[in-house]
Amino acid sequence: MNREEANQALDLIRRVVSQAKDDSALQNWGVIWMLHAFVNAAGFAATDWLWTAGHHTPGPYALLWAGVLAFNIVSIFVLKRGQTAGARSFVERQIWAIWTTFIAGMLLVAVLNWLLGLDRLFMPAVACVLFGTAFAMMGALMGRVWYAVAAGLALAALGMTQVPDHAFGLLGAVWFATQFSGGFALHRARRRRLAAGGAGARLV
What we know:
Elements: H1 3-27, H2 29-52, H3 58-80, H4 90-115, H5 122-142, H6 145-160, H7 167-195
Helix pairs in contact: 2-3, 2-7, 4-5, 5-6, 6-7
């Protein structure tokens, strides 16, 4: 084996090891996603209830979603506690960036919705578009199946225009199905990897 062949082989090994690390790190998010599916769906249901009950000022919604986000963030660190320390994988850094940007975008849309005096029924469809955009970006990192998820969310956004009185309820149902099924798939892949003798995933 000459030097060029050796370098090519080494590069291949590095890519395989990097991909394995990325996959195992992502698989650790399965339980977190399943838990957050319930919490976020409850948040959307509570949002719908608050509006129906006549709460049309930003305060109750800000408190509700501050609590949801705080729970989600704390639960991530609690569920990750005790895992092997190490550097974040490239894919995991990108996932953090995508979802942090998504949350910031949602907050900005909520503020714009309020400043423009729009009915809250405008918000669910836009939120669904932002969800789809985030999953489309994940498709470039994690596999083409996430493009199908993004397309499904785009169709759901169009469907919400036909049932405006139940848009937040529909958003909660769509989000629960998406996040829970994605989390279940990741968790099942992790269990299979560990059953086959794979090393514990690193996620920090």
